[in-house]
Structure to design on (434 residues):
């Protein structure tokens, strides 16, 4: 390799090193650093001249940069120009692919969570799955960005995922058809006088979706005030820090939301502004192992302020902040630059948010006992009528029976959500007696 090329390479690598190291506090002196960079130049030269096949310099340098970044943690990495552009699109709520958020663990691609109503979700991919092969190509040894690039492709094309799942002895194969992923960041509905807010991701559409959804839902309630609110963050992999702060702020009048600290202990403190959209009514937050990052900021903050009861299973445990730093026409880098802390000062990194009420998700199948008719005094032949009931009271009993049947169906379909609604109803009865 010529001296001019080597000098150019050293300049490039030194620039990238400066993004990840603070030279003023680094134990390595400049001489040692340049010796290591010169070693890199020698290896680069040997690969270029002696490797069995010809290799493009650009590919080698990008691989070296990506290797340096990915060695730091699973969330740092190099973004080639296309990946960098795709990331800009993702935060606006529409992109192409399978509809899964992934990370890397021990060299394997791990599913943080599938996104609602996406191809991966419909195909049965679950949070915690390990994707070991894509179209029979092994994922082990690839960087996260390389693995993501392989999983993306033309809309309508099919892809085979080989998955290792906890609890299953053998890998399973899942066929998924790629599609344009158009995320509705938040959906709102009213169920049993409880406002259910399902938030699937934190992007630029989250707050508008939530505010509009709550407004329309309350308008449809014919002036009846809701008993409370359920914020469903299950399988929400996170997103923009700014949106997590804004969502939390919707339900707080004051106080800290989250703080971030860099390697020197410096950072930002974000506080709530006046105005609680729920007007003090009870809130239950649903989380699970697929709730990560921004979801954990929201759940952790509202839990610390005792503004919400957190129900479900322990969250993913991603307590770090990534900055996307542009590198001109070369794309960009995603670099972990800080940790975040909940209002009480706790870090959930590698720990997750612990729910106040532990409850595993389980669809309840109707048992033979449930199917059998339960008899009461009223069913006995010749039983005396209750002659003191008014028509209004009879109507109320009919409504109670309908409500009971609806509750039973809800528990069979989604026991966590059903339990959350029960909690809201119990808390609303308690508050009304105060």
């Amino acid at each position: 390799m010529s001296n001019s090329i080597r000098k150019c390479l050293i300049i490039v690598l030194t620039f990238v090193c400066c993004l990840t190291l603070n030279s003023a506090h680094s134990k390595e002196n400049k001489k040692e650093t340049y010796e290591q960079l010169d070693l890199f130049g020698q290896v680069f030269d040997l690969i270029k001249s002696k490797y069995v096949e010809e290799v493009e310099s650009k590919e080698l340098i990008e691989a070296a940069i990506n290797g340096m970044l990915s060695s730091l943690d699973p969330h740092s990495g190099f973004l080639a120009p296309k990946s960098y552009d795709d990331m800009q699109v993702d935060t606006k709520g529409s992109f192409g692919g399978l509809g899964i958020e992934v990370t890397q663990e021990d060299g394997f691609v791990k599913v943080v969570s599938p996104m609602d109503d996406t191809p991966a979700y419909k195909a049965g991919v679950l949070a915690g799955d390990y994707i070991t092969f894509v179209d029979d190509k092994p994922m082990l040894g690839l960087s996260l960005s390389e693995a993501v690039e392989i999983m993306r492709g033309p809309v309508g094309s099919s892809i085979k995922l080989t998955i290792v799942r906890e609890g299953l002895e053998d890998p399973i194969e899942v066929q998924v058809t790629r599609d344009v992923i158009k995320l509705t960041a938040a959906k709102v509905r009213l169920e049993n006088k409880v406002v259910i807010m399902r938030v699937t991701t934190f992007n630029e559409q989250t707050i508008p979706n939530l505010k509009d959804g709550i407004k329309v839902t309350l308008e449809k309630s014919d002036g009846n005030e809701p008993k409370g609110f359920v914020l469903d963050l299950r399988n929400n992999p996170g997103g923009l820090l700014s949106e997590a702060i804004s969502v939390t702020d919707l339900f707080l009048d004051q106080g800290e939301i989250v703080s971030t600290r860099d390697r020197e202990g410096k950072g930002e403190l974000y506080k709530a502004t006046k105005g609680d959209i729920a007007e003090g009514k009870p809130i239950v937050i649903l989380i699970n192992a697929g709730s990560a990052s921004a979801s954990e900021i929201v759940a952790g903050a509202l839990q610390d302020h005792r503004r919400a009861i957190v129900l479900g299973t322990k969250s993913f445990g991603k307590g770090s902040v990534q900055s996307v730093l542009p590198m001109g026409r070369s794309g960009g880098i995603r670099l972990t630059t800080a940790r975040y802390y909940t209002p009480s000062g706790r870090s959930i990194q590698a720990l997750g948010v612990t729910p106040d009420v532990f409850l595993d998700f389980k669809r309840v199948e109707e048992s033979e006992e449930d199917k059998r008719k339960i008899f009461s005094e009223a069913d006995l032949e010749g039983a005396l009528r209750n002659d003191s009931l008014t028509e209004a009271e009879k109507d109320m009993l009919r409504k109670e029976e309908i409500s009971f049947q609806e509750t039973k169906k809800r528990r069979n379909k989604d026991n966590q959500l059903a339990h959350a609604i029960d909690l809201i109803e119990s808390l609303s009865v308690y508050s009304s007696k105060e």
Notes: DSSP finds twelve helices and 19 strands in the chain.
